[in-house]
What we know:
14 helices; 439 residues; alpha/beta; 37% helix
Amino acid sequence: MSTANDLLPGAGLNPHFTGYRCVICAREQPRDYAGYVCPDCGVDGILDVVYDMASIRSEVAQTGAANAFSPTTGTGLWRFAPLLPVRPEAAHPAWALGGTPLQPAPRLAAHLGQQQVWLKDDTSLPSASLKDRAAAVAMVHARLLGVTHLACASTGNAAASLAVLSARAGLDCTIFVPAAAPKAKLAQLLLHGATVVPVDGTYDQAFDLSLAEIAKHGWYSRNCAHNPLLVEGKKTVALEIGLALTAGFTAHPDQWPDAVLVPVGDGCIISAVARGFNELRELGLTPGVPRIIGVQAAGASPLAQAWSACANDPAGLTGPEIRAAIQPVTCRTIADSISVGIPRNRIKAWRRVAATGGGFLAVPDETIVEAIGLLAAQAGVFAEPSGAAGLAGLLAARDKGWLRPNEKVAVLVTGHGLKDPGAGLGQVTLPAAMPPLAG
Ligand SMILES: Cc1ncc(COP(=O)(O)O)c(C=O)c1O
Ligand SMILES: [Zn+2]
């Protein structure tokens, strides 16, 4: 009997993908390893996908960068197939996505007195957040493995991405959410046909429960902080910035960001962004790696707190030292998507950010609300609180002296404002109604 999975186009592995390496002990696993995390280090032993970069470099040299990264199996992120672990054999609405605009924001830049500001606007993805990039890779990998049921824990957006793309693919999904997640986000999941399991607890508790259930039922884990393949999908946001600023890898940019601002919850997006820029530099396609600055809400800022407590040599810490430096916090912020008490990908995020010369900072909710207003009025982009945190971080980075006004900056806008419109209400005064025409 054929399953929904059989109706999808086929998928294969990238021949340049060679296996996995643990971020703590560096033990390697073969590429058919199915355990998600390091067997020695447990749940903190998150794995990195390993590629044979020398063979990717020679493929790119032989075919030319423009050909190596041309749109092949559909538009969007699959043009980066040489740098992704899996690849579909044909385009399908469940995974053909990406290619979002990198929009210069001259009015916003002038308003802030910043030389150049680009907005990488991922609000236009199918479920209106950057998380679709990870879910697209999950869909292709699940297809490859023949698994028809996917699951995740999420504060909302990862769940939405899984629900939307599962509906497109005709696959089943189960989603564990903190019961306090915004109602609009829960409605979206249910409308797309997901099984929703509200957890009477925090995101962190929902995450632990999801791992237990995934293991019990043999589902596919779309938990980005757990499944190392998914971060690779998120990496494409950085690859797209590189592609856009080099006219498709054909020209050396005269415009290149000095810094990139990234909202941080579990630390997956930021780890992926740093990795993406590093790979482009390694392949000689871009001039360098911008400083990557991670932005947390002040009420959920374990990484930013540990970073400021360890100003000496953040780049010199070992994995266990990083783990010891970052203490769990109790969260309180309007930015529900980055309300994470103990970031699952903290070690990877810390190391990668440190290597770029960037850092982590925290922004109060008031600055996030201000950033929502600035994005809307000065750039015509509507962001949810977590989606606007990157711009809030720009303001804070300027105040801290981490960013000079004469520098060029790219800001990730990671989630659409209509997901949580209430947060923007603090920025506006609704006008009083006027009487209609008489008669
Ligand atoms: C809109 C938005 N921005 C940023 C983040 C943070 O991403 P990460 O958890 O990978 O750090 C999330 C995560 O849910 C999100 O939904
Ligand atoms: Zn390990």
